[in-house]
Amino acid sequence: MLKKSQEDHLAAVIDAGYHLHKEIGPGLLESVYETVLAARLKRQGLKVVRQMPVDVRIDGLDFANADRVDLFVNDWLVLELKALEKLLGVHIRQTQTYVKLLNQPMGLVINFGSEMYRHGVRRVYSSR
Length: 128
Description:
By secondary structure, the protein is α+β, with helices and mostly antiparallel strands. The chain is 38% helix and 31% strand. This is GxxExxY protein.
């Protein structure tokens, strides 16, 4: 369960994504949405890390910077952005893996490629 402040941050992220989608619409590269959304979230006072490295430990071996999370917001929210016609299960599982590896309560997938914003937003929890 999220704290009230986390729910507020989550709502701010979803709202900022909505306004960006409404203003620009689908059709641009994921990197454009990432750049603009990160700037808007920072302007709202949220802490945002772009392309945050994710370390992986498998069979006792450490792999530093094995992958990257698009945006990491306020030291707890894993934000994975897409610019695809349709989200697939693999995109949800990718975000679940990031949430688990980073030991965070949840993540959010926002697909800016969806015609309707609400169809492209998914809350994602660890599959522990």
